[in-house]
């Protein structure tokens, strides 16, 4: 059984939509890693438990059709409890929630073979270290920005399908 980690923001939770709503910005298709205003206002949500606890769902729990070992998220550490409540109240599997900015390192240290994340630099780095990296691409992320060195997916169930294919 391969050990897997799954990211939360912009994979399970629609962080981008929550930010657009809170700061009254248009919910347009965009490279969320390049949006200037998000970086400028991020300070204002860093300690806002209500914000983290009420993010809209992007991928519902039913879409996770595989077993996994950890939620691996790079959020503000002080919001970890709010995130745990979000996962619980939206019906996600009960798994350990790890907050880390060094996701590849975490995977290597903890014998993780598969990472599912939306951040291009994260999946790229993980792939370079030999981890099976899936770039989850939210529908608000333009297709031409996908990083091509990794497996691109738009529904979490594709992880199950692709891993099955690999085993054949
Ligand atoms: Mg993310």
Reconstruct the topology from this structure.
Elements: E1 4-6, H1 15-22, H2 36-41, H3 49-53, E2 70-73, H4 80-89, E3 97-99, H5 103-109, E4 114-117, H6 120-128, E5 132-136, E6 151-153, H7 157-167
The structure holds magnesium ion.
Summarize the structure.
The protein is of the alpha/beta class. The chain has helices spanning 15-22, 36-41, 49-53, 80-89, 103-109, 120-128, 157-167, and strands spanning 4-6, 70-73, 97-99, 114-117, 132-136, 151-153.
Keywords:
168 residues, alpha/beta, 6-stranded parallel beta sheet, 33% helix, globular, binds magnesium ion
What small molecules accompany the polymer chains? magnesium ion
Strand composition percent: 5-15%
Structural class: alpha/beta
The poorly predicted ranges are none
The spatial strand order of the largest sheet comes to 3-2-1-4-5-6
Determine Rg (CA atoms, Å).
15 Å
Element order: H for helix, E for strand:
EHHHEHEHEHEEH
Major sheet characteristics: 6 strands, parallel
* Shape descriptor: globular
Strands, count: 6
What do you see in this structure?
- By secondary structure, the protein is of the alpha/beta class.
- It contains 7 helices and 6 strands.
- Strands 3-2-1-4-5-6 form a 6-stranded parallel beta sheet, covered by helices on one side.
- The radius of gyration is 15 Å and the shape is globular.
- The model has no long low-confidence stretch (mean pLDDT 94).
- Bound molecules: magnesium ion (MG).
- Magnesium ion binds at residues 7, 9-11, 117-119.
């Amino acid at each position: 059984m391969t050990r897997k980690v799954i990211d939360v923001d912009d994979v399970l939770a629609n962080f981008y939509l929550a930010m657009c709503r809170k700061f009254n910005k248009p919910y347009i298709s965009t490279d969320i890693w390049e949006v200037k205003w998000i970086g400028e206002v991020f300070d204002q949500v860093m300690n806002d438990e209500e914000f983290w606890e009420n993010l809209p769902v992007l991928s519902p729990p039913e879409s996770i059709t595989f077993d996994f070992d950890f939620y691996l998220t790079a959020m503000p550490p002080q919001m970890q409890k709010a995130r745990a409540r979000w996962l619980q109240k939206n019906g996600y599997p009960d798994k350990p929630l790890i907050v880390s900015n060094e996701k590849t390192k975490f995977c290597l240290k903890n014998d993780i073979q598969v990472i599912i994340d939306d951040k291009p630099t994260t999946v790229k780095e993980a792939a370079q270290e030999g981890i099976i990296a899936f770039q989850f691409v939210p529908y608000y992320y333009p297709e031409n920005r996908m990083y091509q060195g990794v497996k691109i997916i738009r529904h979490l169930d594709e992880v199950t399908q692709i891993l099955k294919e690999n085993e054949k």
